[in-house]
Amino acid sequence: MKNVLTLLMLCVMLGGFGSTTFGQGEAAVPFLLLAPDSRAGGIGESGTGLADNSAAIFWNPAGVAFLTGTEINITHSNWLPQFNLDLFYDYLTFRHYMEEIDGSILASFTYMNYGEFVRTSELGPDPIGVFRSFDAALTLGYATKLSNDWGIGFNFRVIHSRLADKPAGEEQGSGVATTVSFDIAAMWRPERLIIPFTDEDIGGKLSIGVNLSNLGPKITYIDQDQADPIPTNFRLGFAYKVIDSEFNNLIYTLDFAKLLVSRDGATSKQFYEAIFAAWGDESFSEELRDINTSMGLEYWYGTPGDFLFALRTGFFYEDPDKGNRKFVTFGAGIRYDMYGFDFSYLTTSMFKDGENHPLNDTLRFTVSIGWGGIPEAIRGLPRGI
Question: Can you give the residue ranges of every domain in the chain?
Answer without folding.
Answer: 2-238+255-289
